Amino acid sequence: MSNSNDIESNSKQEFTITVYTENRIGILNRIAIIFSRRKINIESLNTSPSEIEHIHRFNILIHETEEVVRKLARQIEKQVEVLKVYYNTNEDIIWQEMALYKVPTDTIAELVSVERLLRENGARAVVIRKDYTVFETTGHREETDKLIEVLQPYGLIEFVRSARVAIIKDSEGFNRKLREFERREPGEDVIENEYLDKAKNVFSM
Amino acid sequence: MDTVQAEANTLTEPKKTVTVSGSVALLEGLIAEGTDTIFGYPGGAIMPIYDALYDYSDKLKHILVRHEQGGTHAAQGYARTSGKVGVAFATSGPGATNLVTGLADAQIDSTPMVCITGQVFAHLLGTDAFQETDVINITTPVTKWNYQITDATEIPGVLAKAFYIARSGRPGPVLIDITKNAQLQMFEYEGYVPCEHIRSYRPRPLVRKEYIEAAAAMINSAKKPFILFGQGVLLGSAEAEFKAFVEKSGIPAAWTILGAGAIPTDHPLNVGMLGMHGNYGPNVQTNACDVMIAIGMRFDDRVTGRLDKYAKQAKVIHLDIDPAEIDKNVKADVPVWGDCKETLPMLTALIEAKTHDAWVAEFRAYDKTEYETVIHDELNPVSGEMTMGEVVNKLNDLTKGEAVIVTDVGQHQMVACRYAHFQQTRSNITSGGLGTMGFGLPAAIGAKFGAQDRTVVAIIGDGGFQMTCQELGTIMQTGIDVKIMILNNRFLGMVRQWQQLFHDKRYSFVDITSPDFVKLADAYGIAGKKVSEREDLEAALAEMLNHKGSYLLEVMVAKENNVFPMVPQGSSVSEIRLK
Question: Which of A24, B104, B262, B437 could disulfide-link B233, Cβ–Cβ 3.0 to 4.6 Å?
Answer without folding.
Answer: B262
